Amino acid sequence: MRTFVLAMLLAVPVLAQPSPIPTAACGPDGVNFSVKRDDPPHTLAQPDPGKARVYFFHDAGSASIVGYPTMRVAVDGTWAGANHGNSYFSVSVDPGEHHVCVNLQSSLVAPRVELAHFTAEAGNIYYYRTRLVLSRSVELLVLEPIDSDQGNYLVESFPMAVSKLKK
Q1: Which of 5, 27, 54, 121 could bridge across to 74 with cysteines, CB 3.0–4.6 Å?
Q2: SS (H, E, C) 104-165
Q3: How far apart are CA 26 and CA 117, in angstroms?
Q4: CA-to-CA distance for 86 and 131, rounded, in angstroms?
């Protein structure tokens, strides 16, 4: 009995270990983007035939982007693009389940990863917004789905991000 109790006490810390972050949705490490912003006005792009479209916005909360980190976005393990400051981009996806990963392309802010998944239907448009909250005691990256009305407003208001892989 004593051996059983000892074995259980030793096993509890192993069982209580947090599981690793499921970052299979993220792209490979070491991939960085340069981002140029194309000022509005822009219109909402419709999905390609037989596909869905996903918009990714970053709401910086400020017009100042000096020193602001770039947000990388991956879909299903492949980096799809990046936002910098208040900006957005969109991608076309096949119908079905998709996994999204957002993280900071920065060495100045602690690493942050946000994950989500959704099931796309052909002809539909999906919207996600990221926000980075920084203070003396908090560093928080938030990824959230948003309403189509808010998405349409942000397309009209924010610059479109045109990102290219850095070599």
Answers
A1: 27
A2: EECCCCCCCEEEEEEEECCCCEEEEEEEEEECCCCEEEEEEECCHHHHHHHHHHCCEEEEEE
A3: 12
A4: 10
- Give, for 72, the enclosing helix (H) or strand (E): strand 70-75
Q: What pTM did the predictor assign? A: 0.82
With a CB cutoff of 8 Å and minimum separation 6, the contacts of 145 are: 116, 118, 126, 127, 128, 129
Q: How many whole angstroms separate alpha carbon 11 and alpha carbon 163?
A: 48
* Cα 72 from Cα 81, distance rounded (Å): 6
Task: Tokens for 77, please give them.
Answer: 């393990």
In whole angstroms, what is the distance from residue 31 CA to residue 105 CA?
A: 9
Report pLDDT digits (tens) over 39-89. Answer: 988 999 999 999 999 999 999 887 666 668 899 999 999 999 999 999 999
CA 153 to the chain's CA centroid: 19
